[in-house]
Amino acid sequence: MPELPELRLRVANDAPIRRDREYVLYWMIAARRPRDSFALDRAIAHARELSVPLVILEPLRVGYRWASARHHRFVIDGMADNQRAFASTPATYIPYVEPSPGAGRGLLAALASRASVVVTDEAPGFFLPRMIDAASRALDVRLEVVDSCGILPLRAVERVFPTAHAFRRTLHRVLPAHLEEAPSQRPFAGKELAKLGRSGQDLLGDRWREASAELLAGDPARLAALPIDASVPPTSLRGGAKAANAVLRRFMGERLHRYGTERSQPGDEVASGLSPYLHFGHISSHRILRTIFKDESWAPTKLGKPTGSRAGWWGLSESAESFLDELITWRELGFNMASKRADYDTFESLPHWAQRTIEAHAEDPREYVYSAQEFERAATHDPLWNAAQRQLVAEGRIHNYLRMLWGKKIYEWSATAEDALAVMIELNNKYALDGRDPNSYSGIFWVLGRYDRAWGPERPVIGMLRPMSSANTARKLRVRGYLERYGPQPSLL
Ligand SMILES: Cc1cc2nc3c(=O)[nH]c(=O)nc-3n(C[C@H](O)[C@H](O)[C@H](O)COP(=O)(O)OP(=O)(O)OC[C@H]3O[C@@H](n4cnc5c(N)ncnc54)[C@H](O)[C@@H]3O)c2cc1C
Description:
This protein has about 500 residues and is of the alpha/beta class. The protein has helices at about 40-50, 70-85, 105-110, 130-140, 165-175, 200-205, 215, 220-225, 240-260, 275-280, 285-295, 320-340, 350-360, 370-375, 385-395, 400-410, 415-430, 440-445, 470-475, 480-485; strands spanning about 10, 25, 55-60, 90-95, 115-120, 145.
């Protein structure tokens, strides 16, 4: 069997591999793509070694918090892509969308009862770790959890990092050993694999139905029939591996060269727009990294000294270095936290200095206090904040710089830090296409001091937290176009 980097594999239970069974099951829950996935590679390797077919189950539940038409449509777009991609392989692909809460219960166990081994994705944060734990207890067959989350395997470092700088220093030391490890770009190429003699629906029997062709094709009526929040509608952004690759191509061709200098300008679209695709696993960091390396003819000999500095280590252009600092340092910092601390989404996980300063200013009078509903309706006194909130509601995203301002103001205009956290988590995870990610919590908790330092002088309400103001933002950045675009339009809300 081809080597899977040991650090990327976790065997989640004591049950054996059952060689007398029918197939290998890949339970695709996070790396929702047909290539560039260590878990898919592992499942294929098992199937070949055992000389049995490969069955891939990609499920989507309905009974979880924030399940909405917007996020369902994005994931279902990805299922349609996957169905097309796996149709030309020997694997049997089963897209399953739960029609009602709990309808999918028992499906994994039923499919696993005929499997020799089950492989799934490591997925820190949200409800997925609990779902994997429950499966590991219930299955009578070996469950392997494979980490395709980022460039650095989650288990390559033991500790949690207080700052991006501390993490970057470690990355510079340990990452080079992992840069050669990449999942397969063409996982089935040149590999003999047994084919299942029956259809996916046949395996599901009478109790469960594969997602219909109409639902996969994006039929609004089929989506509307699902018991999910229809008040958060799909955006114009299509999900899936195909769309993700198009977004990557556009970024490489039109934006990357300006990223280092213009990323913060809200009027320009210079950032990649890849976060929803990364979140749902429609694209992998490895693919993005490979594309940049190829574009800049990179070789390992270009790596600099491990100084922990933001720029200069990779030996790439300034823009590419700046982008990789977000994609690897910042993104994987969030995965590090969510995978190692169960309390990553609680107030108590903030650094002590931040908790202390927040508590010291808890009773300070606030100039404005808004309710969760007022925030949601973009009904504050601040046009720039309202515009950011409208963009979030309408498009499922906020420009990164304004996202920081958005969070800072929610903190300043809430009665307590706990209220602010609840509002940020609710609005971000309800509307943002990249919400519910480990980095949702990095960003939201950064507002309250995580990964940051104390900023003097001490101010009312925010204490030693880093200040941000709309007036300064408007002075520094070109916001007029943004305000025009996302100004008050009653139809948006
Ligand atoms: C209050 C707040 C909430 C946030 N919520 C989320 C969220 O729900 N999901 C999410 O993925 N990110 C979140 N972020 C981080 C950041 O805003 C987004 O990752 C980024 O704007 C996504 O746009 P992009 O893909 O065009 O980024 P690019 O600038 O093109 O960056 C490429 C990738 O690097 C990663 N990245 C970029 N910036 C950051 C960052 N500051 N922290 C961590 N990773 C980063 C993302 O995976 C991103 O897709 C939040 C930030 C704040 C301040």
